[in-house]
Design goal:
Enzyme class: hydrolase
Catalytic activity: L-glutaminyl-[protein] + H2O = L-glutamyl-[protein] + NH4(+)
Number of strands: 10
Structural class: alpha+beta
Function: Probably deamidates glutamine residues to glutamate on methyl-accepting chemotaxis receptors (MCPs), playing an important role in chemotaxis.
Shape: globular
CATH class: Alpha Beta
Number of domains: 1
CATH topology: 60s Ribosomal Protein L30, Chain: A
EC number: 3.5.1.44
Strand content: 25-35%
Largest sheet: 5 strands, mixed
GO molecular function: protein-glutamine glutaminase activity
């Protein structure tokens, strides 16, 4: 069995190899956004860090939720996925800084979730499932062979999303 492919901060990985498992470990305020085309057996995973692309950044920069979603979509379509078949799921966006008195500015997780919802709506892409928010980190896995997506909260058990 192959080692899982780790999708690191600010990366997009797309695969059609049924032996691949894509994984983003320890998502705190970051978001893991998955796109799966089960009919064409193509899966992708974005590991986005911040909500909005900065001026001058690459239009498909995966570091940012908005441009990262656009980049993931572009990579999926280039790999042969059909936009109409995409099943999209989102994991992460926790508020890891829970100290009283911190402003919403520091709640990057909530801002990431809002940016993802806005971007998906703008691109007319339906979100099929999400496990977001809270105060715990999560790990997301995408099994390319089946299109299965799982999430595991730190200290918890892996479950289907």
């Amino acid at each position: 069995m192959k080692e899982p492919i780790s999708v690191n901060l600010g990366e997009v990985v797309v695969s059609s190899d049924p032996a691949d498992v894509l994984v983003a470990y320890g998502l705190g305020s970051c978001l893991g956004i998955t796109m799966v085309d089960r009919q064409r057996h193509i899966c992708g995973l974005l590991h986005a860090v911040l909500p909005h692309r900065l001026n001058g950044a690459d239009p498909y920069c995966a570091k940012y939720v908005d441009s990262g979603i656009e980049g993931l979509l572009d990579a999926m379509l280039k790999a042969g996925a059909d936009r109409r078949n995409l099943i999209i799921r989102m994991v992460g966006g926790a508020n890891m800084l829970t100290t009283a008195g911190l402003s919403k500015t520091f709640d990057v997780g909530t801002r990431n979730i809002e940016s993802a919802h806005e971007t998906l709506q703008r691109l007319n892409l339906p979100l099929h499932a999400e496990e977001t928010g809270g105060h715990s980190g999560r790990t997301v896995r995408v099994y390319v062979a089946t299109g299965r997506v799982t999430v595991r909260v730190v200290g918890g058990v892996e479950k289907d999303l």
